[in-house]
Design brief:
alpha+beta; five-stranded antiparallel sheet; 19 helices; 21 strands
């Protein structure tokens, strides 16, 4: 029997222990549920934003007294925002009333749409769909990625893949019986019985509409053609308005969005109160899943397709179209344009501007930020030049190659992991409209476009100029984004802008987008055996075989990369269609997310980051690149591995400042130089290779 002193000593030891914090992922969930940014939390705890990110990524832990304050805050949030599944009667946050929530309306029209707090399933207990054990896949068994607990409102996950026999394959291996034989019946079943959907990503956002993916057999069963044929790209084709299925939809008083019934069809009715009534369909045999973004997925078995799309939906967003569309939608889902604010006069909750978002109204760019066909250019007769912030397409002239370089037997390509995603981190962009200034004093903290002469800035001719995409030296005044001008100043040169289109309201709009996609990318690479704890030799070995480790997860990884680049490209979507006439406004201009200045900021920062690494590599190793294309650089090498020329300290650790290997966005991996040298040959012949290598990897593709 222990003595009283021993028991009291044990109790005192427990009392004196440091408080225990919830897991890192739960810390992030609680903060996001409270609608608090990492920067605001850092300010409250008198620390840095990076420290908060480290706590939420599990890289470090706070120390007292911050530890005690942080735990108290998390405990308070946990009481207000319990984890899904722990309490079915969690308090409902105030919502924003609205006149319309039609998915087919423009973003300006739906800006005041209600923030749904429940699924479209009626309050009364719906008839439960028949659930069957998962049928064994006809593909070899693969490792399943761990998925979080399902939202109690959406017990069967965000999506299902419907086969011709009425089986709807969901995430987590479930199979639902779907009795629908027409598209309207499928929509009714999805909303009332399937239990499909996904919770909103921001407290002021809206839940994701359920997605039903149709195999070719399912499409035919529902009365749809197995294929869409025509002279246009298949993704651009639509069913004619007199097609029987389109008539069925209209007769059942459902609506199609302005995109019509194509590979990605949205079918909806006006919202009833807080409940949205909308279902997203994706038709595999109509090329809904582009082979470049979703390699091999269309040929997979339904259960495997559900697994791929389910992991993507959990880690990124429920697909709503091409990966470019999904990348853009993710920005809005994480930074909704409106939030609930109290009207002091009436005391009611009304929609108001959500700080840090792009708002509800589209914004015209400054003339130099626009495209030549934009109305602000055509109507004003602007001829003052345009921003040319694009990714590198540069080849070193042959006469600048040394004899020693020519005798090296290998050319090794280094590809930066999601370089444009890394550039979006902590990127301050403009949130308000541009103001015009004459002879402004340059300030590197103000985002905007500057007319400045950088032709006097000299760089080593063996390196590309940091100021132009083709690497040639500027010949006179030109428009540049803030990061480009700041780099000239960083190199020690005087900059004297002649004009500027600058923005007064600023913010790190892309930060949550960057954080979510970065985590998705790293987690998916880890599923493929590429983890951050690998040394450089093991990393290269893991990258060599990662695509064969699990084809499903390899497809998710490709989709995440396409989401990054497509989403950034979509910020400056050009007009599409043969009926367009110059000077007309095209549909993309109605989006608040049509922001070519933000796209230019991301690409400018990525190109400057690349040039900084190239310069540091030259200083540390004396090596100069043969060519740079987008986020890939080719070096001459004595061996076939980057380990033969990358700089390492005597301790064996990589030297900071240059290229480093690793799975984190912004770090390098080995890229086959053969495709790069082929691209170099195309460039020397005057062709654009961006759409020919790595699946259109450059940010030049502005997507569907």
């Amino acid at each position: 029997m222990p003595s009283e002193e021993e028991l009291f000593a044990s109790v005192d030891a427990l009392l004196n222990e440091e408080p225990h914090l919830p897991p890192p992922a739960e810390r992030a969930r609680l903060r996001e549920a409270a609608g608090i940014t990492q920067a605001r939390l850092a300010a409250a705890l008198k620390t840095t934003t990076q420290s908060v990110k480290n706590w939420e990524n599990g890289r470090s832990e706070p120390k007292s007294p911050r530890l005690d304050a942080y735990q108290r805050l998390l405990n308070g949030w946990a009481a207000k925002y319990p984890a899904p599944g722990t309490a079915l009667t969690a308090p409902v946050a105030a919502t924003v009333p609205a006149a319309s929530a039609e998915p087919g309306a423009s973003r300006a029209e739906t800006a005041d749409a209600p923030t749904p707090q429940a699924s479209a399933v009626p309050a009364a207990a719906p008839a439960r769909p028949a659930v069957r054990p998962a049928a064994p896949s006809r593909r070899p068994a693969t490792k399943r990625a761990a998925l979080p607990a399902a939202d109690p409102r959406f017990p069967h996950g965000p999506l299902a893949v419907l086969d011709g026999d009425g089986c709807a394959y969901g995430t987590g291996g479930i199979v639902l019986d779907c009795p629908a034989t027409t598209v309207p019946e499928l929509v009714e079943w999805t909303l009332r019985e399937s239990g499909l959907g996904a919770a909103k990503l921001n407290r002021y956002g809206k839940d994701s509409d359920p997605l039903v993916v149709l195999t070719a057999a399912a499409a035919v069963k529902l009365g749809l053609p197995e294929r869409l044929e025509g002279h246009e790209q298949r993704r651009s084709l639509r069913l004619p308005e007199d097609h029987p299925v389109v008539k069925q939809v209209a007769k059942a008083k459902w609506r199609l969005t302005q995109r019509g019934f194509g590979p990605w069809a949205r079918i909806y009715r006006k919202a009833q109160g807080r409940d949205r009534q909308c279902v997203q369909l994706a038709i595999l045999s109509w090329d809904a899943l582009d082979e470049r973004s979703w390699p091999g997925v269309s040929e997979m078995e339904p259960a495997d397709v559900a697994r791929v799309l389910g992991v993507y939906a959990t880690r990124v967003i429920t697909p709503r179209g091409s990966t470019a569309v999904s990348g853009l939608e993710l920005m809005t889902a994480l930074r909704p344009p409106t939030c609930a604010v109290r009207d002091e006069a009436s005391g009611n909750w009304v929609p108001g501007h959500n700080p840090g978002s792009l708002g509800t109204e589209p914004m015209d760019p400054a003339p130099p930020e626009a495209t030549p066909e934009h109305p602000v250019v055509v109507d004003s007769g602007w001829n003052g030049g345009f921003l040319n912030e694009e990714a590198y397409q540069w080849v070193r002239p042959v006469d600048l190659l040394s004899d020693e370089e020519c005798t090296l037997p290998y050319a090794v390509g280094l590809d930066l992991n999601t370089a444009f995603l890394a550039a979006a981190a902590r990127l301050v962009v403009g949130l308000s409209g541009p103001d015009h200034f004459h002879a402004p004093t340059f300030n590197p903290k103000i985002p905007g476009s500057w007319l400045v002469d950088l032709s006097h800035v000299e760089v080593d001719p063996r390196l590309p100029s940091p100021f132009t995409p083709d690497g040639t030296r500027p010949t006179g005044p030109a428009w540049y984004q803030t990061h480009t001008v700041a780099y000239a100043q960083e190199l020690g040169h005087n900059v004297a802008p002649l004009e500027g289109y600058l923005r007064r309201e600023t913010g790190a709009y892309l930060d949550p987008w960057h954080d979510r996609l970065k985590e998705a990318y790293i987690d998916t690479l880890a599923d493929l055996g590429v983890t951050r704890d690998l040394d450089d030799h093991a990393f290269l070995a893991a990258m060599e075989r990662h695509k064969d480790a699990d084809p499903a997860m390899a497809a998710v990884l490709a989709a995440i990369k396409a989401t990054v680049k497509g989403g950034i490209g979509k910020l400056r979507e050009r007009p599409q269609g043969k009926k367009y006439q110059e000077g007309e406004r095209w549909p993309a201009l109605q989006r608040p997310t049509w922001r070519p200045d933000i796209r230019a900021a991301v690409i400018s920062k990525a190109r400057i980051n690349m040039h900084r690494k190239l310069t540091n590599m030259a200083k540390m190793t004396g090596l100069y690149p043969l060519a740079v294309l987008s986020d890939c650089v080719v070096y001459p090498s004595p061996g076939d591995s980057p380990l033969d020329f990358l700089p390492y300290a005597a301790s064996g650790k990589p030297q900071p400042g240059g290229f480093r290997l690793g799975p984190t966005p912004g770090l390098a991996k080995l890229e086959g130089a053969q495709s790069m040298l082929w691209a170099v040959d195309l460039m020397e012949q005057g062709h654009n290779p961006a759409r020919h290598i790595k699946g259109g990897d450059a940010v030049l593709d502005e997507g569907e």
